[in-house]
Design brief:
CATH class of the largest domain: Alpha Beta
Helix content: 25-40%
Largest sheet: 10 strands, mixed
Strand content: 15-25%
Number of helices: 10
Radius of gyration: 21 Å
Order of helices and strands: EEHHHEEEEEHEHEHEHHEHEHE
Number of domains: 2
Distance between the termini: 32 Å
CATH architecture of the largest domain: Alpha-Beta Barrel
Shape: elongated
Strand order of the largest sheet: 4-5-6-7-8-9-10-11-12-13
CATH superfamily of the largest domain: Aldolase class I
Length: 357
Amino acid sequence: MQNKLLGVIKEDIRNITKSKLTDLLKKENIKAYQISQIYDWLWVKGVSDFSEMSNISKELREWLNSKFIINSTILKEVYTSIDTTIKVAFQLHDKRLVEGVLIPSGERVTACISSQTGCGLNCAFCATAKITDFRNLTAGEIFDQFVLLNKLSVERYGYKLTNIVMMGMGEPLLNLENLKRAIVEFTSPKGINFSPRRITVSTVGISKFIKELADAGLNVDLAISLHSAIEQKRKTIIPYSKSDSLNRLSEAIKYFYEKTHNRPTIEYLLLKNFNDSITDAEELAKFCRSFPCKVNLIEYNSTDDSRFSKTTHETLKDFKDFLHSKNMVVNLRTSRGTDINAACGQLVNKNLSKKAN
């Protein structure tokens, strides 16, 4: 993204790759230790203005300000659930909004981070699909969410973030280059040094990009929003799957496991009288035979779409028991923050008309 000020087009400094930025700065005779300091301010401390770079000279700060900008992200509103989950509305430099979520569990705090300002995949069960004016987030905007959520986590819970899930607004693999760059910055030993095994990338299942993620060598975990192992049913609720079959998806997941040795998670949203029968469970078990995995069962969180409803407790138990009988690793993922529309599938900036906490 570029801004124009007094006739001079200035580029967001965080959109420039590290190697290119280093070359640019070296040509200006900026010393290696100063370049390192600049990078530390940008990708560890997450400053929003060059004036905050207190350990570099005023002259260098002014020069940076004359050549570049920092398109920073701000906390717009914060909502706290009765279960202590927090949802945040971030405002980007172009006034678009994205949402993030903090999910505490003892000394563990998970940040749910967005990759796009909406989503174009139009999954039937997801409220985010209703946002039609959307774009990819830059690596800097993804990084900003981490910095701001980490600070908020310390303030509200007394703990730094322990886990990151790319399960917010958007399809992460449709923004793969920016996602990869952000993850590199999260996990850099010279930067934040966040463990890649504590980062999960959640995707609807874009086969070719799952393979690219595996080849990137980032060592992150993978979650697949499957929701049905019956081809026609999956096409009904996930339109993208019409062009990416279950066989192709299975091959891609197997490739990811063989390449990374990280066991993927299969996410399965139970929808009453749609995908919650024992027949559905049988097909799910068959799909999972091709690779080691664990299954997360998810209860439906209501949106404005009346087509779907939550499965019954008895049906859920039968479904789960059947998978256990097949020696599968199965967890029931408890929804958090439903009262503030912070649960899975509910991120749509719905609360912004209401008063924040």
